[in-house]
Design a protein that fits this description.
The chain is mainly α. Helices cover 73% and strands 0% of the residues. The chain has 3 helices and no strands. Helix 1 packs antiparallel against helix 2 (34-44).
């Protein structure tokens, strides 16, 4: 929220709310929790996030809760696959 220059709540309050939202995201019945997650996020954060910042907040929230983790996992998987391929090639050429 400080990126938007909004200082109406504490960091601990925002982290607490976000932890609740992440938990609810995994229980939402829609594919990828698309509509329900954003609406729940905005309704819970309505006292902190002004309506003019709602689209930016939703984009930032969705990126940090879903896309960031997916990209980090993809990078970790990619590194593991490369290491494994190198190991297989070394064993193949040695023996």
């Amino acid at each position: 929220m400080s990126a938007f220059s909004i200082e109406t709540s504490s960091l601990s309050e925002i982290i607490e709310i976000q932890m609740t939202l992440v938990f609810l995201t995994y229980l939402a019945p829609t594919p990828g929790s698309a509509g329900i997650a954003e609406e729940a996020s905005l309704s819970i954060m309505w006292g902190i996030v002004p309506m003019g910042y709602a689209p930016y907040y939703n984009l930032l929230w969705r990126f940090t809760t879903v896309y960031f983790g997916a990209v980090a996992g993809l990078l970790i998987l990619w590194v593991a696959v490369i290491k494994d391929m190198r190991k297989v090639f070394r064993q193949k050429w040695k023996g």
